[in-house]
Structure formats: structure tokens, C-alpha cells
Amino acid sequence: MNWIKPLLPVRFDTNEIYTIVIFLLMASLLKLIPRRMEPSMFYFLYTFNIYLTVMGDYFLAGNPLNLYDTLDRNSGELFDFILHLFVYPMTMLIVLSIYSNGYPSYFKKWGTAVFIVLSSLFLVGLEWISAEYFDLYTYYNWKFWYSYMVYLITVSLNISVFILLRNYYLEKRTRVG
User: Fold this and answer.
1) Is 0.70 topped by the overall pTM?
2) Where are the domains of the chain?
3) Alpha carbon separation from 29 to 23, 93, 95, 150 (Å, rounded)
4) What pLDDT band is residue 1 in, cutting at 50, 70 and 90?
5) Where are the transmembrane segments (predicted)?
């Protein structure tokens, strides 16, 4: 049973409880918000966001940069898997679901740009709450405005991939039907 010890939290406290609560909240929201995307598109974007999350944490939180840690350890633990495999991808899919429901059209000409800015601010707010009140993150040389820049890039990239996939499916549907 010694093999499992490095994966367990140092102590089960607020950050693990918060991880479970935020997982349940994101899963519920993702179920409630209508999605206007093909199931294969949804699964591709979900997997794409797992990849972005794992690679981002690998480069930013790992050596040699070591800009931050999540949860109790400076290496992965069980609740990191929950964050990487569920919470982070589901959060971005909620953003994409809201986008796919036409939210940017409320802002007319600058709709997508305003949506990206507001979504990134919202995500930074969630991160701040997670760090400040639930000790989900321990920052070393990381600033919140770095997170904002990362979210601007991540949301933009996700929306670009979403649009490419949506156009592909629309073109495919037009050719077939």
C-alpha cells in the first residue's frame, strides 16, 4: 500500500473539499447549460482541454520554472487528477457552451472579443477565490495578471478550435444533406 501514499493529500482539508464541491458544481452546470455542438466535437474539446491543462501545469508548475503548486504537494496527487481530468476541462466547456448559445451577439461588432475578455476575467476571479479562500494554489513567482494572459490565450484558442470544428460540421452537413 506504500505506492498510494505519494498520491494521497498530506491532509484532507479545505482544498480537497473545495475540489470535490467545484467538481460537482461544474458537472451540474455543464449538464444544465444547453450545448450547441456535436457530441464528437464536445469530446474532442474536452480532450483538447485536458491536454492544455496537463501541458500548461507541466511547463509552468514543474521544474525548472516552478511558478506555483496546486493542493498540498509540489508533485501530483489524487485531487490534481480530478482538477486536470474534470474541473479544468469542464470549466472551459461551460465557457464554450455559453459561447455556442450566442452570447457574443449581445455585444454586436466586438462580441467575440468582449466575450473572451469577460470570460478570462471570470476565470481569473474563480482562480483568485480558489487560491485566496481554499488554498488550492500556492504561488511562488506567479502573478494573477499572468493567469489573465493565459486565460486570454486559452479562451481564444478554444473558441478558434470551436469555430473550426463547427464550420467543418456545417460544411459536412451541407455536402451530405
Assistant:
1) yes
2) 5-176
3) 10, 10, 11, 23
4) low
5) 17-34, 41-61, 81-99, 111-130, 145-165
